[in-house]
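Subject: for your reference before the review

Hello V.,

The reviewers asked for a structural picture of the protein, and I figured it would be easier to keep everything in one thread rather than splitting it across files. Below is the amino acid sequence we used in the manuscript, unchanged from the supplementary table.
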Amino acid sequence: MNKEVGVTFNAGSSSLKIGLFDIGSGTAKRLGRAVVSLGEHPRLKYGSDDDIHEVDLPDSSDGLGTQAISSVLDRLLQGDRNIGFVGHRVVHGGLIFKGPTLLTDGVMSQIGSLTPMAPLHQPQALKVINAVFALNPSVIQTASFDTAFHTSQCSLATRLAIPRAMHDAGIRRYGFHGLSYKYIATYLHKFAPYIGGARVVCAHLGCGASLCGMVDGVSIDASMGFSALDGIPMATRSGTIDPGVLIHLLRSEFPDADKLEDFLYHRCGLLGVSGISGDTQALLEDFRPAAREALDLFCYRIAGEIGRLAVSIGGLDALVFTGGIGEHQPEIRRGIERHLTWLGLSLNEAANKTNATVLNAKDSAIAAFLIPTDEEQVIADEALAVISQHRLH
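And here is what came back from the structure prediction:
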């Protein structure tokens, strides 16, 4: 008898993360995970923790199109599994989507209309969605939105200092990485209930990076605003930049907005500052002054954003590190701590070096945790909730 499974696709700027879940009991239980490294020659890595396989995907001009997704599903389903649903992470929900939804032609059209606000991510998600429908037109597909978690924010957090009509038309702060923050908030309530209801800043540090200030698991403010370019410097993205610089660059360096956009997304951040790499691990292993300066700037800006978010949430009881950098690079966490000792943050040296769950020293005024995020679990849980609600109606 074939087993019914749920599949989740998490399309990022540099990879496609895939989750496989047993949904036979009505809940989503992880069966396996996979990741497609994007690039000229895509490669699939899949399996369970103790049984990992790596294969090259067929080179194709359509990138994450039908051919690639067909190869991925063939490997994961292994002929004895039926797809119960496919859930997707979609970065931008704009003012339209405040929670997960079933995917229809109309919904996909609305998601496409938001592409100018997430040009790096939105097309990738839509390409995967279309590929799945092409392969299996009758499959149930759902979308979970990164921006939805932040719809709890008040107008002071979301408003830019521009005319009100522009704000009402959607030019405002949204916040991103919401699926990650939702997972962390849920996990904290179970793991450390005395902290889960307190004032928490979570730092999601990866190729794309942001921070979120939460109270009782609810988003109050975030570092990213209108786009995934905003906030702290990232691997190749600039982070917050003086608007006057953009005007200057348009007048002097770049003939149009498209070229400026490519510059801000792909040639700035740690890569731009170091001139070496946007990869923090590569920079940690490089002893040239420019590499050290890029890392120092990264930690300095993150610490500064933690201070700003502490104002937004009225204090700071706990700091959570997650994402690839946040989970695996003690040097970065230590670099951030150095700027926050005045707030009372103190990391336990041994715990930090070994990537322990509880990172703070006993005398620290602020709790510190390392919690691996699981956006795919949130997507799967939301997909089941949407499908269940739909069947009730």
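For the response letter, the relevant points are probably these. The longest strand covers residues 81-90. DSSP finds 16 helices and 13 strands in the chain.

Happy to draft the paragraph if you're swamped.

O.
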